[in-house]
Amino acid sequence: MTQVAKRDLEIIPSGAMTPMDMIDRAVASGAGIETIEKLMGLQERWEANQARKAFNEAISEAKARVRPVVRNKEGHNAKRYADFAAIASAVDPILADLGLSYRFRTEQGERINVTCILSHRDGHQETTTLQGPADTSGNKNAIQAIGSTLTYLQRYSLVQMLGLAASDDDDGKTGGTGATLNSEQIDKIQSLVLESGANVTAFLNFFKAESISDIQASKYKEAVAMLEQKKRAKQS
User: Fold this and answer.
1) Which DSSP string corresponds to the chain?
2) At what angle do helices 84-97 and 142-162 cross, to 10 degrees?
3) Where are the domains of the chain?
């Protein structure tokens, strides 16, 4: 920074002023272009930080308001799950009220990748990505196989992004046996899934779970060991 720019910044009081207030004051006082550019950069960082705070507050409020989603469908081995319509019905009104929205980005190569993008009206957004092969079970044709995987990955990427829980229709009785993973364990598994490039569909099927949050706590060490082994193989 030049001496002129330092001098300009020194004569602009900060206090409770926002960077935009400081820019207005700098322009009015005849500050140089270097000073204005630095203040504009400060304004951009300030806006990004404010947007991130608003996003986090909205997510916290959403999680407090969203109730467990009812498992309204029956899948493999008579295991019940919440379909995308049930999830959307539960979360969309609340998210919209808090200025949140989601969309999906898809990519297809050897595997199908679905990225859930959760955005706030103030501009901050975060993403989570899941991947899996085309679901060829049940004599599906090629297009149906892709569509099935897309639907599956969209559902669970949104579930993981929002940290949703599911409940059965029987007054909250659980369909499994024993405790499921806590939030710290879920975060660990999610990170390892991404780092190892694991096939999410196969991984969940192995542990007989519809989502990572449904994995039994007793299976946590086994799941971590499996993913870490796959991660090492990927890096070698």
Assistant:
1) --HHHHHHHHTS--TT--HHHHHHHHHHTT--HHHHHHHHHHHHHHHHHHHHHHHHHHHHHHHHHPPPEE--EE-GGG-EE--HHHHHHHHHHHHHHTTEEEEEEEEESSSEEEEEEEEETTS-EEEEEEEE----GGG--HHHHHHHHHHHHHHHHHHHHHT--EE-TTTT--SSSS-B--HHHHHHHHHHHHHHT--HHHHHHHTT-SSGGGSBGGGHHHHHHHHHHHHHHHH-
2) 40
3) 3-53, 66-174, 176-236
Range 1-4 contact pairs with CB under 8 angstroms and sequence separation of 24 or more = 1/34, 1/38, 2/34, 4/32, 4/34, 4/35
pLDDT tens by residue, the chain, 236 residues = 454 444 444 444 444 577 677 767 767 777 667 777 777 777 788 888 899 999 999 998 998 888 888 888 876 666 777 888 989 999 999 999 999 999 999 998 888 999 999 999 999 999 999 888 888 877 888 899 899 899 989 998 998 888 887 665 433 333 344 577 787 888 888 888 888 888 888 888 888 777 787 788 888 999 999 999 888 888 87
pTM: predicted TM-score of the whole model, two decimal places: 0.59
Q: Which residues fall within 8 angstroms of residue 82, CB to CB, at 6 or more apart? A: 69, 70, 71, 72, 73, 155, 166
